[in-house]
Amino acid sequence: MSMRTLIMLIVAVPALIVGGAMAFGVAIPVPEWGRDYVLRFLLAPDAEPLNLPVIEGPDDPDRPLIVIDAGHGGRDPGSIGGGDGSNRVLEKDIVLALSLALRDELLEGGGIRVALTRDDDTIVTLAQRPEIARQLEADLFLSIHADSAGGNSAVAGASIYTLSTEASSEAAARFAERENAADALNGITIEGQSAEVSAILVELSQQRTQDDATEFASLLEREGQGAIRFHPQTRRSAELAVLRAPDVPGVLFESGFVTNQGDRSRLTTEEGRAEYASVLARAIRVYFARRADQ
Ligand code: ZN
Fold first, then answer.
1. 134: number of Cβ within 10 Å
2. What separation in Å is there between the alpha carbon of 293 and the centre of ligand 1?
3. What spacing in Å lies between the alpha carbon of 143 and ligand 1's midpoint?
């Protein structure tokens, strides 16, 4: 399919849906291009209750909000590196320290609101992590991890993951189903005929969310060039449960390998962490600045 046809389709499909919906007598607000295009979904009433974290930074809901997600925690240590001796490091500790350093860096720079899915050594389930971002109506979700290469201590460098396209549209379908059951989509009650309509709206919204996530991933890569070591295969996509929110762009950052000595020392020293934090913070600022201009 040519780019032109693709663009035509992307522009024409929402118009057709809205037109079709009108024909069925259902009023659906026309989403505008730009940041507002992503629909906000109401939660199903039976969604599990969450302890929402505190939002730090400016007390202004118009300021962009990032949710930083330190992977693992509590009884889940994540990857383990450095052997059994005093060099032993746990992913859950590394990524918490890195998340806290990033939070501090962002708060110091001002203008951005920050929340953490965990700020201590507790466990948060995989499903709860993106759900926290959704309930806080976050603009961006960044999950931070550190990798393990088992016995291959030579493997090193950071990678940036986004949700794979197949997983993305599958998640959209499942989400639409769940939300349809709750009869509420974007604050509008939709019944009967419009199940397909709402499913397509969710799909479109998820596409937009994935485009934003991809853009943020590119910015991370760009800002990190020359500052942090990347794995030769820097950009990857996978079926990651933690990135499945249909309305909050999310990226998973594998900061490095706990099984590699160089990565491990960068990830466990304050100077090393500061470097990571400044790269991540720059990418986040550029991402939000672009959206503010739209
Ligand atoms: Zn991990």
1. 19
2. 34
3. 9
* Interval between CA 231 and ligand 1 midpoint (Å): 16
Give backbone dihedrals phi and psi of 141, rounded to 5 degrees, phi first. -130, 125
Residue 34 CA to chain centroid, in angstroms? 18
When pLDDT is averaged across residues 259-277 and rounded to a whole number, the result is 95
User: Model pTM?
Assistant: 0.79
User: How many angstroms does the Cα of residue 255 sit away from the middle of ligand 1?
Assistant: 10
> Which DSSP category does 260 fall into?
S
Distance of CA 39 from the midpoint of ligand 1 (Å): 29
Running DSSP on this structure, what letter comes out for residue 56?
B
Domain 65-292 has CATH 3.40.630.40: yes
Among 34-43, 110-119, 190-199, 243-252, whose mean pLDDT is lowest? Answer: 34-43
Percent of the chain residues topping a pLDDT of 90: 55
Work out the mean pLDDT of the chain and round it to a whole number. 81
Whether 213 contacts 250, CB under 8 Å: yes
> How remote is the CA of residue 252 from the centroid of ligand 1, in Å?
9
